[in-house]
Amino acid sequence: MAILTASNLSKRYGVEPVLRGVTFSVEPEEKVALIGRNGSGKTTLLRLLAGLDEPDGGDVARVRWARVGYLEQIPAGPADVDVFSHALSGAADVQALEIRLRELEARMASPDVHDDPDRLADVMAEYSQVRHHFEHAGGFTLEARARSVLSGLGFLESGMKKPLAALSGGWRVRTELARALLAEPDLLLLDEPTNHLDLAATEWLEEYLQSFPGAAVIVSHDRRLLDAVTSRTLELEGGLVTAFPGPYSIYAALKAQQIEQQAEAYYRRQEEVEKLQAYIRRYRAGNRATQAKSREKRLARLTSTPIEPPKGPQVMRVVARAVPPSGRTVVRLQAVMKRYGEAVVFSGIDLEIYRGERVGLVGANGTGKTTLLKMLAGLEPPSAGDVTSGTGLRARYFAQESATALQDDHTVLDEILDGHPVTPEQARTYLGRFLFNGEQVFKHVGMLSGGERQRLNLAKLLLDQPNFLLLDEPTNHLDIPSREALEAALLEFPGTLVIATHDRYLLERLATRMLTVESGRLVDFHGTYDEMKAKRSRDAQRAGRKARRAAPGDGDRSRERPPKSRRPTFEEIATQIAAAEQELADAGRLMADPELYRDGERTKMTRARYEEAQRRLEALYQLLASVEAGDR
C-alpha cells in the first residue's frame, strides 16, 4: 500500500497554472527524486505533499499512521532556542515519553503510591508501557544521536549551544535538517537538502539517507546524491509529472532516448505529409485525380491531430572561445601565509599550477578556499611568502555570490556592453546562449534571481576570454540542465582551471588534480576526486589494521592503555558504544523494578548509573563523529 498518493493535483498562482493534473504515489521505504527546472513548481508540490498548502484541485492521501517530516529551503521558526534543543524538538514525542517516565518514577517513590499495592500496580503497568515505547523509539540514545547528526552536518560542540538567532541562513538550514532527521518520520520531504552543505556533510547525509528506513521525496540538484539514494525519478515539466524508473543517470539516458524517438517520429510524419501534399498538388486535376482524392483523405486524417516538434529543455548554450596561451607555469606560491588579525588561515603553502591543468579545490566551509582562489587570481595579497603569476596570464575570478560583481541599477544588456567591444545586437545574441531572450535583456539586475545572476556573471566572465579561470561554487543556484551545459563548456575550455565546488558530479567530470584545504595546510593529490577518496579509504583501513595489530594482548598488562597519540579506530569506538548501550539498557531495566524504590540509596545509585551510561554514550558518539570526519 502506498504511503502517499497524489491524485490529479492542480495549483495556480494568479492566472498562471503551476501544477495541472499531477498524479503519482510513493511506496513505503521508497526514495524518489523530484527534478525540474528552477521555477517549475517543485517547492509548491512538496508543500502540498506536506499538507502546508491546499491544492486548487485534486487531493493528497497519506496512510493514517504515517509521520511526515519536511525540510524547506528557507526555514522559519523560533530564534530564541539553541541549536541542540531545536534539533531535539524534532523528536518531541520521544521527549514527552521521557518526561512521563520521570513523573511516574517520582510517583513510585512517593509513600502514598509505594505503600498502596493497587496504586503501585497501576503506576508500574503504565511505567512499563511508557518505558517500552520510549526504548523502542530510541529514547535512551536520543541525545547521543542528536550530537552525532549535528556533528555529521558540521556542527562543533560549541556550535550546538548557539541560539538560532546567531546562525547564518546556511547553518540554520543545517539545524532544520538535523531536526527533520531526528524526527525519524515515515515520509521525509527534502527541498534542496545539500544547499549550504560542504562535501563532508553532503557525503554524511548521503550515507544517512541510504540507510534511512522510511520513504523520501528529494528535490536536489546534487546528481551524485540522487544516483546514490533514489530508485525512481519524477520529472516536473509544464505542470505535469512524468515518472521514470531508476535514479538520475538512468532518467537522463531515458529522457534523451525519449526526445530522440519523438523527434524521429515527428520528422517521419512531416516527411509523409510533404510527400502527400506534393502528390496532391501534382495530380489533383490530372488522370490520377481519384488517387489524389484518396491521398487528401489520408492527409486530413494524418493532420487532424497536430503534433508539435519535440522540445528538449531550454539550457545555456555556453561556447568556450579560443584564448591566448599563458606560460607553462601559471602561478607559483612559495612559503605563503595568510592571516586575518590573529587568525591564521594558511601557513607554509608551496604550490605550482601549470598550463592546461584542471584542479579541483575542496575543504570544509570556512577553511579558506575562497581566500586561496583570490590569492591565485592576484586579488588578495599573502601576509607572508610570494605569489608569482606566469607570463601572458589573463586570470578571471568567479565569485561565489555574484551580487558583488553586478550593479543592480544596470540592465542585463548594460552589464554585457559595459567594457566589452560588442554591438547591442551581438550582445543580445550572446546573452541568448545564457537564456536571456527577448525583453529579458532589459531586465534590471536587481530583479534577477540567484540563478539568473550566476548565468549573467558567467556570461561576463567568459566574454573576457581568460586563459586562467578560478571558479568559486559556479553551480550555486543553477538547475541540473544549466549545470550540465556549464560542464560541457568547461570541458572544452582550452585554458587552465581551478574550481572550488561541493558538486561531486562536476568535480569527477572536470578535475584531474585535487587540492584539499585542511587545518591551514594544503594537501595535493594528482588524480580525480574519486581516486582521492579511494586512496583515503585505503589509508584509513590500513591505519585501522595497524592499530588493531598494535593493540595490547590479554596477558600484557603493561600495555593495557594505548599511547595517548594513538587515534581510536571506528571499530574500537563501535565496540564501546555497544557496551554503553547495554549498560544503559541494564540500568533502565532496574529502574522498572518496583522493589528498587523501597531503598532510596539504591534508587539514587541506579539513577546515577543510568545517567553516567547516558553521558558516556553521548561522548562516544561525538568521538565516533570526529573519527568519521577525520577519515573523510
TrEMBL record:
Domain ABC transporter: 4-263, 331-544
CDD domains in the record: ABCF_EF-3 (cd03221)
Keywords: ATP-binding, Coiled coil, Nucleotide-binding
Pfam families hit by this protein: ABC_tran, ABC_tran_Xtn
SUPFAM superfamilies documented for this protein: P-loop containing nucleoside triphosphate hydrolases
Segments of this protein annotated with the region Disordered: 533-570
GO function terms (MF aspect): ATP binding; ATP hydrolysis activity
Biased composition (Basic and acidic residues): 533-542, 554-563
Coiled-coil intervals, chain numbering: 570-630
PROSITE patterns with a match to the protein in the record: ABC_TRANSPORTER_1 (PS00211), ABC_TRANSPORTER_2 (PS50893)
Name of protein: ABC-F family ATP-binding cassette domain-containing protein
Organism whose genome encodes this protein: Candidatus Segetimicrobium genomatis
